[in-house]
Amino acid sequence: MTTQWAISEGLVAYPEAVAAMESRAAAIAEGRAPELIWLLEHPPLYTRGASAQEGDLLDPARFPVFDTQRGGQFTYHGPGQRVAYVMLDLTARGRDVKQFVCSLEDWIIGTLAAFNVKGERRKGRVGVWVDRTRPSGQLREDKIAAIGVRLKRWVSYHGISLNVEPDLTHFGGITPCGVTDPGLGVTSMADLGYLVSMHDVDVALKAAFEETFGAVERGQSPLE
Fold first, then answer.
1. What are the two backbone dihedrals, phi and then psi, of residue 28, each rounded to the nearest 5 degrees?
2. In 3D, which of 169, 166, 114 has the Cα closest to residue 144?
3. In the prediction, which pLDDT does 182 show?
4. Is 177 tagged catalytic?
5. Which residues of the chain have pLDDT under 70?
6. Which of 28, 177, 184, 216 is catalytic?
């Protein structure tokens, strides 16, 4: 089984990315194309997942809002956030959706570990979190990476988003992933004090992906 790895430079418009991703996922399901991991950045935007509550869109005029077929609620995408669209054939990987999501979390946790950032999973909360408990003992956890996937004919699409150095104030236009607990927030590698380049993050993502899912080879963006 061949899995390709592609990176798009610059900001990729969301509608074009989704159309290209859906087309590639269909080709994978039909055996016409290999699996693909596609890394990119989007311009500032909000996406509305299948479980989104309208009250969680706090500032609808701030950025464009796109409906999406992935699971989850409202999310933000923008510059400084590495989005990885994951088009994998789960028929060849066991058809275990719960394990697949756990593997995506493992992938992110392994990537963060390369920079000595301790990412953790939390029961009942999809995604990857970091402990920000204050010296005073005040409990706080912040989300550093989100996961939202969809399956069609057992091929995954959509994927993960890792906050490297986005403008965290942009999350203020939504209730991210519907989380309202004041002890839970959003963070980034830069916010944690880890100033790393997107290139270095991509290198770590690739190494952690191969550790979790298997080897990849160089591919092209589906927009090329």
1. -65, -45
2. 166
3. 76
4. yes
5. 137, 177
6. 177
